[in-house]
Amino acid sequence: MVVLRGITKRFPAVLANDQVDLDLHPGEVHALLGENGAGKSTLMKILYGFYSADCGEIKLQGDPVHIHSPHDARRLGIGMVFQTFTLIPAMTVAENAALYLPDLPPVVDTRRVAKQISSLGEKYGIQVSHRFPVRDLPIGDQQKVEILKLLVGRARVLIFDEATRVLAPHEIEGLFDIFERLKGDGYAIVFITHKMREVLACADRITVMRRGRIAGTLTRSEATESALVALMFGDAIPQEATSAPLPPAAPGSALLALRSVNTRPQGASTPLRDVCLEISQGEIVGVAGVSGNGQRELVDVILGLLPCAAGKRLLHGEDATSWSAGQIRASGVGFVPEDPLGMAVVPWMTLSQNAALGDVAAYARRGGLSLGWDRVRQDIVTSFAALEFEPLSLYAPVRTFSGGQLQRAVLARELGRRPRLLVASYPTRGLDVRSAAAARRVLVQLRNSGGGVLLVSEDLDELFSLSDRLVVLRRGRIVGAFRPGEVDRHEIGHLMTDSEVGE
Amino acid sequence: MNWAFFGGLLSGTIMYGVPLLYTTLGEVIGQRAGMVNLGLEGILLIGASVGFAVSIETGNPWLGVGAAALAGALFNLVYAFLVATRRANQLASGLTVMFFGMGISAMVGRAYVGGGIAGLARYQVPGVAALPWVTRTMFNYDLLVYLAVPVAVLVWWVLYRTRWGLSLRAVGENPSAAFAAGRRISALKYQAALACGFLAGIAGAHLSVALARTWTEGMTGGRGFVAVALVIFSKWHPLRAIVGALLFGGAVTLQLQLQAMGAGVSPFLLNMIPYLLTLGVLLVWSGARRFAAPGALGRVYSGEE
């Protein structure tokens, strides 16, 4: 039905899709499995016209087609349900669906649209009350509205991007029932996920992607969990350039201790449940997990951006449960966020202004009426030199820096303050090989000089080569704690994706 | 208090409220498409000056109203260009349009200061003259007054019952979703701006051609800003805008009448009545406000990728 050939897409820092071939058949659920960043979503967004491929070809029923926009895609009968829904909360279900009707008359009869929705809903077992604004519906029903929207729009290829992420278990079963009925009517369904169990529960054909390439395609009968894990995480793992064997760490006193920390659920976030974690001087603690399983909440709790609903946070041996983010920062905690442009810097300010913002109190002069700019500049230059980074312009707005330059700037600022504890969230995401190696070297240096590091990453190679201890987060809980030598990647992979070992 | 007082209050309310209603309806359309237009004051002035000038030159006030509507629509394209094409900040763009409009209207109107016209013809509501308490002015209005409420209903129908209205509201609520549904965001914003300018142009002409029947610089006296407040008051709904415009018109008229009667209150205080009313209404309404405001109101839509 749909044939993708040689699809390649390069983003500024990464090759998201590299010569990808994929075939979709009618009456089949095709699962796209892979870690975050493996290129699954990018590939499907290319099919849906959200991105355009750098090269490659798409054929629909044998004819080559050009898809430049979602509008083109939908005219060709390709529809997509995104992770974040594209519904209009203030409008009713019928109005939302009407927007997607290809032959909507100039005067809209919402009652007729509603009738159309009901009959389609009955046919495929998708019941939603369509009188209310979408914002009043529970999240599972909102997803049903998304599906109905595509069906009334006469899509024949339905793409679901991480569709189960926001659903409760019974809702997931309901979704798979809907898949079955749609399949019976010849719809082609693409189901993007990183959850092994769901794939085995609903897919007829499974394609595994790794680092922008197809790692393999299996039919349901051929697929086993271990075969899929092997494809997802790779058998031959290349050696990291920087991973010189680390001297055994001699842990000192605990810098940070979380004792049975819980957080309140907020929106679609994953609350932490009974998280206990210690980081001592001179160790790197790696956090593995598929993103969205509580990593962000863990980091926010440590930094004081999110309050503990229950449990205690101890810093440097003191009870810091009620400390503010400023107090925590002042006590010697540094932060390298996953999104430096959004969370660590003010994009339109210069490097030196941003550096000063990192510790305004220390640079304040005359009671805060002025700032010691000379010292700010001196510190940042010293810090760059100490880290052996190439110097950057102090007077350019940081908005103009590349991802790697920006990450170096943030690292230099945070390490220039000589933190005792550094929280690094995906510190090498989006960096080129050289910058990534430099960033890793910095983390090891800090550890060797007696600092503690919390390293959140999705790159298992990085976690294995740098961490002294590894914990695995799944659905807000720590489901395993190891020393890297004690486990292999496959066990971690199984823990991350909640599947049994060696089935 | 007598019938004359209430008659005056009623006709004053209507005459003051009608141009406000047209302006508010225009702004409702614009804001439903996600655009806050603070330039309304400028568009009203353009409408007033062009409407008056064309009425004098042609001797036909209806041509004046038509020209004013067109001028308002075209002039609001400046705002649409800044906001939809150049993706400029809406507040700054609106204020720019306002000052620009003030300047141009002064230029257009300069030759006509002190001129007078017959104005739009007024029609008595048939049958009411027999009623004993009816005064001459009470049910005697021009056609634009009689059309105001039907136009409000029309705007409601267009926004809520047509494909265009659905698309327009989608753009104002969630441009990404509207784009994903195949709508052309910029085109819809331009169309909304044209409609907004058209209605504000009519309102401006009504002020100069039907009410004042003369042109003075800055004669709109802040009505453009009142209309922006009335949009919030009416929770972005064209039918509630009728209530808002009349309520405000009533407050202004009452204040004028109390002053004329020599009420023992400072005239400055009385002058404030309509604005205190607005303030109070906004205070009471503001809690519920975020549920009614279009989701992407005032935001710059930067497109996908």
Q: Can you walk me through this structure?
A:
The complex is a heterodimer of chains A (503) and B (305). With 503 residues, chain A is an alpha/beta fold. Chain A is built from 18 helices and 22 strands. In chain A, helix 4 (110-124) packs across helix 5 (139-152) and helix 12 packs across helix 14 (373-386). Chain A is globular. Chain B is mostly helical. Chain B has one domain (3-113, 134-285): ABC transporter involved in vitamin B12 uptake, BtuC (Orthogonal Bundle). Chain B has a two-stranded antiparallel ribbon. In chain B, helix 2 packs antiparallel against helix 3 and helix 2 (40-58) packs across helix 8. Chain B is globular. Chain B starts with a helix and ends in a 13-residue tail after the last helix. Classes of the chains: A alpha/beta (503), B mainly alpha (305). Chain A binds chain B through residues 50-51, 69-71, 74-75, 86-91, 95, 98-100, 104-108, and chain B through 161-167, 169-170, 173-174, 176-183, 294-295, 304-305.
